[in-house]
Specification:
3 domains; DNA Cyclobutane Dipyrimidine Photolyase, subunit A, domain 3; globular; Rossmann fold; 21 helices; alpha/beta; binds flavin-adenine dinucleotide; Serine Threonine Protein Phosphatase 5, Tetratricopeptide repeat
Amino acid sequence: MTKRAVWFRRDLRLQDNTALAKALEHTKDGDELLLFFHIHPALNESFTARHDYFFQTLASFVEKAEDAGAPVHFITGDTEDAFENLIETAGIDMVYFNRDETGFGYERDKQVEKYVTSLDVDVYHYLDHHIHGADEVKKQDGGFYKVFTPYLKKWKQLPKPAVQKVDDELLKKAAVDERASFKEGESAYADLLEKIEADFGGVGEADAWARLEQFLDADIYDYDERRDFPAVDGTSLMSRYLRTGAISVRSVYHQIHDQVDFRKKTEGVETYISELAWRDFYNMIYHFYPNAHDEEVVEKYQGIPWNNDEDVLERWKEGRTGFPIIDAAMRQLNESGWMHNRLRMAVASFLTKDLLMDWRKGERYFQEKLVDYDPASNIGGWQWAASTGTDPVPYFRVFNPTRQSERFDPHGRFIKEWLPELRDVPKKYIHEPAKMPENEQEKAKCMIGEDYPEPLVDHKRMRERAIQLFKDKS
Ligand SMILES: Cc1cc2nc3c(=O)[nH]c(=O)nc-3n(C[C@H](O)[C@H](O)[C@H](O)COP(=O)(O)OP(=O)(O)OC[C@H]3O[C@@H](n4cnc5c(N)ncnc54)[C@H](O)[C@@H]3O)c2cc1C
């Protein structure tokens, strides 16, 4: 009899889970399977929006696994202690997991593999979080792509990994319930659940599938046209599910091909698939630039003398800059744990080019607030906007926040949704309320400087200063 353990991390689902499917494929009559989750103290020192959301997803997964007859066990403590306890207490012969290719997870996986192997336990790990892993999409000469368009071309040509079917019957038969031996882990899990404060909605495997079906029924066909307008529900909202692994990105990819009617207009579908490729691209970039969390990828832009004014940073964080589209976006982030992509680009550009503040400060703030926080995509997005990353927005093409607002929220519907103080401001002034004459301000019950701030900076002037900063480093 062989006893296998499957380690769940950011792949909180039972369907199309490579490590789980493989462990079951290797299972023979009489073999046993133990599902577990490791509560690492370092991961939970600060409890932010994404912790609330992640542990809600975990709770939903735990329930689902219980219903499927395969309970989740919890281990806790530093990695080596926790794994030693698991292996000794349960008598594990093999550990299975879906590996990380970047950041903390990557380092942890290497440590676990080394340690667990030293205890004479076999380790099997798989690529699962992405359609193509960091080493799969290569140039002719074997190097990796730094520019997205040729990467995408190659990405599209490669055969795609198949859905990993999980045998539910076998799972039920092989799964063990030894939770009574892992009391410490159980109580660490109960403590985590106690800490959850906010409810961001849309949690777990069933919600992920329902949302995907809804998107594929209709919205995907016009995704290319509607995705840039934050007042419209034009995007899939899959990021939180992909982040927690409530759904597999392979399933998303294959479901598109199974369900979408390719006789209809396909630009939306093509654009959507290329967004999934961006996710793989940034994972690859972070893999090959492991310092990108702290350091500009383009070396010559390291050491830019950023502005350190903490008050200015606070005003950006709180959505009090006097630029309505920026403020509405920041309030959406603060209140809902998510921000529309067009606005992530706009607020990141605003922080780095209009306020001349360090992109790392923005990256860290998103880390605190986003429920879909994914280090590779977030660092990629921030370094793109700051013009310091691979294939970034050129430093001389500075976003004009007012033009962005006029173009992508023409009627000010999004602005008014998140900034109630501007509800009665006429359309003519909604993108630049400070231009309202005093009598209009009175009519709109919005006095500039009291109810809504004056613009924090002069965009035209700051644009020139930003360009100069970069020129000085070029
Ligand atoms: C400054 C900045 C920070 C970002 N931080 C994150 C982050 O922490 N986590 C995150 O998942 N995405 C991040 N993005 C990418 C993007 O904004 C979100 O993935 C998207 O808004 C999520 O909403 P959605 O699921 O409706 O996206 P859709 O438009 O429906 O896209 C579908 C999926 O494709 C992927 N995707 C889309 N755009 C990108 C992109 N530019 N880069 C990488 N993957 C993409 C996501 O997985 C997304 O769920 C960031 C972008 C910027 C500019």
